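# step 3/5: fold
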Amino acid sequence: MPDWIPATPGLLRRVSAGAVLDFMRASQAVTVTEVMAATGLTRATGIAVCEDLMERGWIRELESNRAAGTAQKGRPARRFELNDRAGVVLGLDIGYAKVSVVVSDLRGTALGRAGRPFAASVGGAGRLAVIEDVALAALAEAEADPNEVLAACAGVAAPVDRHGNVLATQEFWGLFDIGLKTAMQERRGWTVLLENDANLAALGERWRGTAAGVDDVVVILASERLGSGVLEGGRLVHGSRGSAGELAYLDLVEGVGDTFGIAHLARSWAAEAVAGGEPTALRSIPASGLAAEDVFAAAAGGDSVAGRILDRLADRMARVIGTVATMLNPELVVIGGGVANSAGRMLPDIRKRLAQFTATPPRVELSPLGDAIVAAGAVRCALDYVEKNSLDLEIGARARP
């Protein structure tokens, strides 16, 4: 077979339509002249492609400048823009204890959100039902019909290979191997993409966070358990079976020894200090209500016990980041998850100690995205799918003109 594809009229129209649509996504209102300059199309072809994309619902024509009251000689220029409500995408963060869903338009603007915890004893079928209910609740808040969903992406706390298959070799990981893609396709007709939560955190951070414009990044989700997503040359690294970025090796690292995260250890070490009778303001907080944020707040107020806990955490995170930097040599490591909102006090100590553990210390920052980081990456992943496959997708029945 030949290693080239004949340039048929149909293929050329498709390529032209894809180029125009890509330009529209990166722009606001544009004229045909601007389309021609960006794509190299002739005026006749540019107009024909724009009209075809309008018929298919992907773009819309705006009122002319003249009609809007702008003085202009000659024939008014036709102006077009992306129809960002041609459909919606879903970003799902499916954890062990809860699920969160974000509904976004085609420019990545959040339109609706919903979340709900899982019951402690719920099985696979029950988890599927909760996920579907939360997705529908988020769509209702966004005033979007389920038929408008063009793609959904779900982040799970388990290794996922590059084909979207969960590596369920451990009992805990099996909680996420529940047939979500098949179930949502059968029940709702939705295309669902599965990805590891830390990988999506890396996508979200590069899209909307501190890592914007950085190609070689590691994002470490650090709240309850440590997990990392790796971007090299701007592309996610999965490995042969989806385990690239897996941090289980920390069990073998001196001064670390497990994969517990900052929030978990802050609570645990604070509870140990209180139980041991150490003088600390944390004693005034009921053990059942003690949170990592209380430890950070006490340290900021000068509490010596809380301060020592943060010192231990900074040393531990420097060791973790040092091993990641030695193996992967990223330009930037971002500490992400809900704990990032409170962990700023540790950052100078982490940076200072890092040189003890690696010869190639990266820049270290905190994510500004908080516990929305995985859902943000899931939205970005779903948008990437839609942008790649736009010309093959059918727009939902209630898509906004």
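# step 4/5: annotate
The chain is about 35% helix and 15% strand.
# step 5/5: archive (pending)
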